[in-house]
Amino acid sequence: MNRFQFVADHQARYGVKRLCTIIGIARSSFYYWQATTADRANGPPLTRCSPDGSASRTRLRTAPTAHRGSPPTCVRVMSR
């Protein structure tokens, strides 16, 4: 369990301000973490990569990989 999850689990009883002060995190960091929970649940953004330099719709990778010769062309995929 991370510190932000601890605050989320106990905020109803003790309050966010008190918990963040005791744990030593900024409230704005907690609220940012809370607002981006759905983004983290989806995982890293997908990219389309192909070793020959053309964008391919069939090869999905989570990050560009090293290939022999020229670097691959990668296109960020916005929807899942």
Q: What would the keywords be for this entry?
A:
single chain, 80 residues, 2 domains
Task: Note the topology.
Blueprint: H1 3-14, H2 16-23, H3 27-35, H4 37-42, E1 47-50, E2 60-61, E3 73-76
Antiparallel strand pairs: 1-2, 1-3
Helix pairs in contact: 1-2
Description of the structure:
With 80 residues, the protein is of the alpha+beta class. The chain folds into two domains: 3-42, no CATH class; 44-80, no CATH class. The chain has helices spanning 3-14, 16-23, 27-35, 37-42, and strands spanning 47-50, 60-61, 73-76. A three-stranded antiparallel sheet has the order 2-1-3, with no helix packed on it. The longest helix has 12 residues, at 3-14. The radius of gyration is 20 Å and the shape is elongated.
Number of helices: 4
| Number of DSSP E strands | 3
Strand order of the largest sheet: 2-1-3
CA-based shape: elongated
Low-confidence stretches: none
Report the mean per-residue pLDDT as an integer: 75
End-to-end CA span: 27 Å
Could you describe the largest sheet, including whether it forms a barrel?
A: 3 strands, antiparallel
Helix content: 40-55%
Q: Helix-strand pattern, N to C?
A: HHHHEEE
Region (Disordered): 43-80
